[in-house]
Amino acid sequence: MPTTTATALAGIRDVLVGTTVEGEREPASSAIGYGLTLARAAGAHLTVQSTSWRLSGDDAWLGDFDDAGIAVIDRRLDTLARSIAERAAGDAAQAGLICTTETPSLSYPDVVSRLAERARLHDLTVLDAGPRTYDLDRETIEKALLFSGRPVIAVPPAHTAFAARRILLAWDGSAHAARAANDALPFLRAAEAVEIVAVATEAEIHASLPGAEFAPHLARHGVRVAVTDLPRAGDVADTLRAQAGRLRADMIVMGAYHHARVREFFFGGVTRALLRNSPAPLFLSH
């Protein structure tokens, strides 16, 4: 009997969404809408952390502002962060979800540290993946992955609603890839189609089918799985983007920040390249 989405996602009981106000305009966040619809699909508790980036007098670029001016800006940022949280809570209530909101005002180092600490207390964290001042999005994602022990879904701009009908699972046989696949099992089981994609040299493909070794394991978990082995020619991130486009993937599952001399498939540069430009939300584990 096919596994329904609600049944497959039943193991996800709490979802954390993080967003940060760093300027006096409301940030364009896809993560909030994506996290809300994911929590609704799973019947999970939703926590929204809307943080305001409190200015610090230690920052050299603030030299033209006096303390009173900085305090005014801090209050504006805090007000905006609270407004975002209140709107998210209202949307969650309309969707029938229980939602907790947190609106801390933090200096730059503490923004990323607190998110990682809170991520440890949730099944997964949803964050924006987009160009932001001082690479705040990228640093927040990296720290959440490296220090929380939990997976992160990095949501590109315009992906405001959760979907997981078609999933590309990037596979290189590493521990990081295995961890990501295991963490993503609820989504893989809910998907209509999962494609294991291995990017390998021609010699590796002729010697064996790198992705085929993992397919039986997923099939035993009720995953509808196919295998595609692609020759490695040029940029790995571009290869994955192109294949995700052909599949029309709703999600890409991959191990993140994998540094190994023998297997370089998920070297940090590939993870960062996809974070800068991905055709679908990235489910990442480290």
UniProtKB/TrEMBL annotation:
Q: Which domain of life is it from?
A: Bacteria
Q: What residue stretches are annotated with the UspA domain?
A: 165-283
Q: Which CDD domains match?
A: USP-like
Query: Entry's Pfam families?
Result: Usp
Q: SUPFAM superfamilies this protein is in?
A: Adenine nucleotide alpha hydrolases-like (SSF52402)
- Family affiliation: Belongs to the universal stress protein A family.
> PANTHER family given for it?
STRESS RESPONSE PROTEIN NHAX (PTHR46268), UNIVERSAL STRESS PROTEIN HP_0031 (PTHR46268:SF15)
This chain's protein is named UspA domain-containing protein
**Organism name:** Methylobacterium hispanicum
